[in-house]
Every structure is written in structure tokens, then in C-alpha cells.
Amino acid sequence: MPEGDTVWHTAAVLRDHLAGRTLTRCDVRVPRFATVDLTGQVVDEVLSRGKHLFIRVGPASVHSHLKMDGSWRVGKRAVRVDHRARIILEADDIRAVGDDLGVLEVLEREHDADVVAHLGPDPLGKDWDPERAAANLTAHPDRPIGEALLDQRVLAGIGNVYCNELCFVSGHLPTAPVSALADPHRLVSRARDMLWTNRFRWNRCTTGDTRAGRQLWVYGRGGRPCRRCGTRITYDDTGERVAYWCPSCQR
Ligand SMILES: [Zn+2]
């Protein structure tokens, strides 16, 4: 599932391939923007903000959000194009294809920041502000920790995997109120550390053990023993998002 680290990494790969190059093909397969043609324009920069990705090309900014199933693939021409493609950008022998993007729009570059103005501090951003993130997290004392962590206005880039993992390392259930956090600053710094550590990886790891099957504390481990205490990990998939926790380690 794409989270802030995936989007950051995707932006880095797109930047490596496209920045400074002139587009030789621009094929947008979304009705509203199908007539947009950025051919002949130079890709100036590629950046991420939380889970949002921007490719700035001349006067335009291609804004995308991967949502649940989206991805960008980039490489030499052999990059496959099929019915999932929503946009194809080429610069000579380089091809970038955005598949199943949850959001794809072409914005005026000068105003592209408007669509992310509501976001909280980005742990992978240059302007990361842990004080503000901690204040946002605890702004409403009764709010469940899991809900607050997933709110992109609190901090940007946390998805369900990190949410579950962060609740585990905090020692609290996702349903516990944020007022239960003894040290919210510590939790936001762990959030930043987790995303930062994983920003160059496609297989995320929160335990420090990158071996297959050992990368995560609780996410996706329902019914299996807790890595700390051996108690079976419990899960609840009745809500909008599945939650995993250790009933002994988390309160
Ligand atoms: Zn445990």
C-alpha cells in the first residue's frame, strides 16, 4: 500500500530519469486532461508532499496521488503500456507510465501547492516540523490515536501500515485516545524515523530486521505471535481499515 515513503521514493526515481529533459511525448488518458500536451516542455522538478506527487513541466504541474493501487513505472522504452495507464510521458528513450492513479490532474504550476495546503508537516519534507506535528496529533484529547495518525492534516504521509506499527511501538491501541500518549513528541519522531529509514526501500521495515517475514511488528500478522511477548496478534477488519495489535503490549 503506497504511503509517504513509497511516494517519496517514486518521486526520486522519476526525478533521476526525467529532470532536465524535454518531453517528446505526453499522453494523458483522463478525459478532463486528454487534450493537454506538454511535448517540448522541460521537466524541471519532481517532488512529493505526503502522499501527493508533482511533476513540474514548464508552466504545468502534473499532480498525482497513488491512492490504493496506483503506481509509476519509469525506465527505457521497454516500460509496458496497457489499459491501466493513465498517463505516459517520454523524453527520448525514457518512458514514465502512471498506472491506476487515484488522482491525476494537470495544474498550473504556480498554484500546485494549493492542493496540499491542508496537509500537516511531512516527515520526509525539508520543512518537517516535529513540534507542530506533535501539537496537531494531540489537538483533540479524546481522538483515537489511530485516527489522528491517519489524518493527513495532522502529519502527511502516514498510511495504515505505519499507523498500526506506530501504535504498537507507542504501547497503545489504535483506539486509545491521544491523551494517553505520555510523549507525543517521541511518537512523531518515530514516525519520521520509520519513513526516513524506508525512503529508499520498496519493502518497508519497522523492526530493524530486514529479513523476509520479519520486517513488521504487527501489520499483516493477525494470529501470529507478538515479536516482543509471544501473545497472538489480534486484528479487526470490520472498519474501513484493518487494525492489528498485540493485546498484551498495547493498552
Ligand atoms: Zn506483545
Keywords:
single chain; alpha+beta; 4-stranded antiparallel sheet; elongated; binds zinc ion
Layout of helices and strands:
Layout: H1 4-18, E1 25-28, E2 43-49, E3 52-57, E4 60-65, E5 71-76, E6 85-91, E7 94-99, E8 103-108, H2 130-137, H3 145-150, H4 160-170, H5 184-197, E9 234-236, E10 243-245
Antiparallel strand pairs: 1-6, 2-3, 3-4, 4-8, 5-7, 6-7, 9-10
Helix pairs in contact: 2-5, 4-5
This protein binds zinc ion (ZN).
Helix content: 10-25%
Distance between the termini: 26 Å
**Main beta-sheet strand count, sense and barrel state:** 4 strands, antiparallel
How many individual helices? 5
Helix and strand run = HEEEEEEEEHHHHEE
**Low-confidence blocks of residues:** none
Structural class: alpha+beta
**What is Rg?**
20 Å
Beta-strand percent range: 15-25%
Query: Ions, cofactors, ligands: which are bound?
Result: zinc ion
Shape: elongated
Q: Count all strands and give the number.
A: 10
Describe this structure in words.
With 251 residues, the chain is of the alpha+beta class. 22% of the residues lie in helices and 22% in strands. It is built from five helices and ten strands. The chain has helices at residues 4-18, 130-137, 145-150, 160-170, 184-197, and strands spanning 25-28, 43-49, 52-57, 60-65, 71-76, 85-91, 94-99, 103-108, 234-236, 243-245. The strands form three sheets. Strands 1-6-7-5 form a four-stranded antiparallel β-sheet, covered by helices on one side. The chain has a four-stranded antiparallel β-sheet with strand order 2-3-4-8, with helices on one face. A hairpin with a 6-residue loop joins strand 9 (234-236) and strand 10 (243-245). Helix 2 packs across helix 5 and helix 4 packs across helix 5 (184-197). The relative contact order is 0.13. The model has no long low-confidence stretch (mean pLDDT 96).
